[in-house]
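ugh ok so i messed up the first submission bc i forgot one of the chains. this is the corrected input, ALL of the components this time, i swear. 716 residues overall. if the numbers dont match what u have on ur side tell me asap before i send this to the collaborators (the ones from the other lab, u know who)
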Amino acid sequence: MRKVAVIGAGMTRFVRRALETPKELSWEAARMALESCELTMDDIDAVCFGTAPDAFDGVHMNGEYASDGAGGWRKPFMRSYVGGGTGIFVPIQGWYHVASGMFDVVLVVAEEKMSSYYPHAQAAFLTIFDHTTERPLGPNLLWIFALEMNRYMSTYGLKKEDIARVAVLHKRNAAAHPCALLGDANITVEDVLNSEVLAWPVQRLDVSPVSDGAVAIVLAAEHVAKRLTDKPVWIEGVGWHLDTAYWTNRDLVYPRYVEYAARMAYEMAGIKEPRKEIHIAEPYDPFDYKALHHLEGLQLAPRGRAIELYLDGTAERDGDLPICPSGGLLGVGNPIAAAGLMKIAELFWQLRGEAGERQVPGNPRRGVAQAWGDLMQVGTVVVMGR
Amino acid sequence: MTFLERDPLAPQAWFGNLPAAHRYTYGLAGERFFRALKDEGKILGSYCPKCDRTYVPATAFCERCLGELTDWRDMGLVGELHTFTVLYVDVEGRPLETPQIVGLVSFGDGGIVHFLHADPESLVIGMPMRAVLKPPHERQGSILDIQYFEPFQA
Amino acid sequence: MTVRFKQFPGVSLSEEDFRQGKVLYQMDELKAEYAWDSGIAIGAYLAGLKRGVILGVRCSHCRKVVVPPRTVCEWCFRPMEEYVELPDTGTVNTFSLCYITWDMRRISEPEIPAVIHLDGTSELGPSSVIMGGILHKLGEVDPKEVHIGMRVQAVWKPAAERTGAITDILYFKPIR
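and heres the new structure output, hopefully the right one now
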């Protein structure tokens, strides 16, 4: 397999309701990514596109519908969709386009416009529940997270006020992100604990916001990357893994599927001790407890103890293992597919030392980004390094 | 009954729906295109100088080079009939009392799909077709601000 | 952020912008009605519910017992060939107190969704990654008293009103 580098990235602001159409959001991000590495569409051999359920847009074949904005015209074009995991899966797909030798330069775009779903995007998520055995009970998406969070907290005796530290750190980090929807430099644990209870133990500020936005990156084979940039950021490992579709049959305490995806990526990257060899982590954080869950799956903390990274300052931007220096989904926003690719873009900027106000000190050399999705069952992991 | 046989007493199917309503913004380009149609009665295109293409309806970007399109042009209301079909049944398959004609009328390198008002026998691919708009006060900023296209004699 | 970018695209709108007609928009409603085939295993499950019985299924190879029933064991990929009539009792694996409807409207009395680990099914453990759990709701209980590990029993609709649906069980209530 050939080495693959990220050589460019761009993104739109994440907003609650965008004026732009999905095509236009895709275009804005794609154009920025191309400009960032001074390429044009003539240089692009293939396009990989990620966008979440067609139901959000009410457009069948939504990936193909928005393909013009992503640069898909007369290119080999492939859309992937693994729910929330899409944003980390689409760069994996781009990676094997290049690693396989098929293509030298690939544009990877992830876009989401959730606000088209009216009146609220939550309704589109009803379809993740089984239509015959679950949907008649009138569920909503929060149920799943609340049920998992409660099980996780109860098993390890975690406290709400501790878990709220995750939301606080990520939203504070996001205050330095120019694209962030919910950055807040002054938010406190009390703010989170006093926010509206949605589905106990989940409160309003435990949750990432519904958003619109797009992110794009450019991937290149080694010989091209070295010609185009002094600072390629290599994709060192990729992994993805699925658990059972029967979520009520599963151990909700521990995301084994994330562990398997992480082990796949670490093995490829030659990582034996992830906690020591990884300098930045961007775990998927649609809810605050989810970041903890995923840090444990990523083998960056023992089971039930990821919270310690937040309590002792390790997770902070200048800590020993900065977590979500971007601000994560909790702070920057959660336009489903775009949110995951935002984490890849963040690692790209961080590892190149171009993250500006958000820059993690100490010249970080390696980072991991992870997303989660499908029917709450997929883990997607990418390790990047320089 | 073996395991793989259906239980004859079991419900055959479970009925349900997906509550799917949408509110679509028209976007950067659509906002300008439909305002021009509504307020000025114009069909606008956007031109890419690099690729020498004119997009109708106007788009914010060129899908070939992804360049931003800033050269917007009034395309007039007369286009060229690219193709058409005569519909004898409705979307549910019921016969239509009056056959309906749907056509693609080209403008620039793009075009607009719409209803045609004409005797089907008189339609010839390549003939000029003119957009008939609603009166200004009835226009809402919608593709239906164009009522239909009809054959045009200069 | 790369020095190249001074500005990031993305135009944010408010609900007010729509109300005041500052932006043009189009409303649309999809017609999305379905008749989902209940299939062999779920068909049997629904027929069981109508009789007042919760059916699970056992894998003759790896001996797992799970619910809802299915025709293939996804862990050893062999047919699941043996229905098991389960007791309608179980243990609360996890629960939530939900104050929000599916379309994000607020309700004052919480619904109590729960994953209920039914008696007689596989259990999670060091060597087992699977349990027989189902999603349902709890009732006849003070929300403050609900806890993980609580023993519960199904409350059924009267036999004449059952239709062969998961809602033939109204909810699960504590066993006192």
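quick check: The longest strand of chain A covers residues 212-221. that seems consistent at least. The mean pLDDT of chain A is 96.
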